[in-house]
């Protein structure tokens, strides 16, 4: 029986030899040789803000001078699809996400690391866009990307590129923030409109036109947290902070409720949900309270400090839309209950999995 010839697309060819003149990632970029060195010196370091000729001897770790005190450390991996979406991309998302994880402990960032898993065949132009975006985001946040790593995997072993970032930050003296500190009577404050990041991702991934462009809310929150702490000093009545990323607002407040053994009562009418987000979620059958955010925080604050903290938040662009959306109660510990616009209440269950996979 005669077999039909197999069509071969030259675009799918990947040469195992380290070609110097290439516009795509090849295996040699992860081999620790000249190609690896050139990728670091010619693409990553300029993107991260290193002046020409300023690169010193290579080290296995970064050395940072820190004042005595408590250190916060966080790490996260970013596998978002697509890589680019309205208002942002995987690069600035990785920088902002790690900064925000530090900030939720009250820490101010000292430095970040960046690790890249690159798929063989990835266009260098795409990698350069991501790296430059990371450099700009770090510069805007006033923090440096101080060390990193690059690995290359075979074609088909990754979806273009994955990014891991880790961060180190200093927690100011006297600051004690943690989910277990939430107290009955605390006001629950959200820093602004929710659901924008998840809808921005879905609009591109599904190719759906919602009638308006919804952009990601990705932003660093450490300066907002610093302003909140300054307004609260020296009382220490900001008890808990959380950035509502995967699982959205509901996952964030329930995690804190379970850690502290308290209940959550949300005023659903007070929660700022943009009209475009509400419309998109209605069309897709999603709950905006469980859609991811990347530039918002939830704060649990003693009522005696609520007005001062709100004023400090609203004085900054990251917190201009801050609102009180509920309070901590003694009833139904570990659960969130919402008061609807009709005056009834409902238990708000967390999703078993994720409503939107790979949103960060």
From TrEMBL:
| BP term (GO), one | protein maturation
User: Do you know which InterPro entries this protein is assigned to?
Assistant: HypE, PurM-like_C_dom, PurM-like_C_sf, PurM-like_N, PurM-like_N_sf
| Residue span, PurM-like C-terminal domain | 184-332
Top-level taxonomic group: Bacteria
One short Pfam family name for this protein? AIRS_C
Where is each PurM-like N-terminal domain found?
59-171
Family of this protein: Belongs to the HypE family.
The name this protein carries in UniProt is: Hydrogenase expression/formation protein HypE
Q: Which organism is it from?
A: Mycobacterium adipatum
Q: Lineage from the top down? A: Bacteria, Bacillati, Actinomycetota, Actinomycetes, Mycobacteriales
């Amino acid at each position: 029986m005669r077999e039909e010839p197999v069509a071969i697309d030259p675009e799918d060819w990947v040469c195992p030899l380290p070609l110097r003149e290439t516009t795509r990632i090849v295996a040699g970029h992860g081999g620790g040789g000249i190609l690896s060195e050139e990728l670091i010196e010619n693409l990553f370091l300029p993107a991260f803000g290193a002046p020409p000729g300023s690169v010193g001897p290579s080290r296995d770790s970064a050395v940072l001078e820190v004042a005595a005190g408590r250190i916060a450390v966080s790490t996260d991996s970013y596998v978002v699809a697509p890589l680019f979406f309205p208002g942002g991309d995987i690069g600035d998302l990785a920088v902002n996400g790690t900064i925000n994880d530090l900030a939720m402990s009250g820490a101010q960032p000292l430095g970040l690391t960046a690790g890249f898993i690159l798929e063989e065949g990835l266009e260098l132009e795409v990698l350069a866009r991501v790296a430059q975006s990371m450099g700009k985001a770090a510069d805007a946040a006033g923090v440096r990307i101080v060390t990193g790593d690059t690995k290359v995997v075979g074609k088909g072993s990754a979806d273009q590129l994955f990014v891991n970032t880790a961060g180190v930050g200093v927690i100011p003296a006297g600051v004690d923030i943690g989910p277990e500190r939430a107290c009955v009577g605390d006001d629950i404050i959200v820093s602004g409109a929710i659901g924008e990041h998840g809808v921005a991702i879905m609009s591109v991934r599904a190719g759906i036109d919602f009638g308006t462009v919804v952009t990601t809310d990705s932003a660093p929150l450490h300066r907002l947290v610093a302003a909140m702490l300054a307004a609260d000093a020296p009382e220490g009545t900001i008890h808990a902070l959380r950035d509502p990323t995967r699982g959205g607002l509901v996952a964030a407040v329930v995690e804190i409720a379970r850690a502290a053994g308290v209940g959550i009562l949300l005023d659903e009418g007070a929660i700022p949900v943009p009209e475009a987000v509400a419309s998109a979620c209605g069309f897709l059958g999603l709950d905006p309270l469980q859609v991811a955010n990347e530039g918002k925080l939830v704060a649990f604050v003693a009522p005696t400090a609520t007005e001062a903290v709100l004023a400090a938040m609203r004085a900054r662009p990251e917190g201009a839309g801050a609102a009180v959306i509920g309070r901590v109660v003694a009833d139904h510990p570990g659960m969130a209950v919402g008061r609807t616009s009709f005056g009834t209440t409902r238990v708000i269950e967390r999703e078993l999995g994720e409503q939107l996979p790979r949103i960060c």
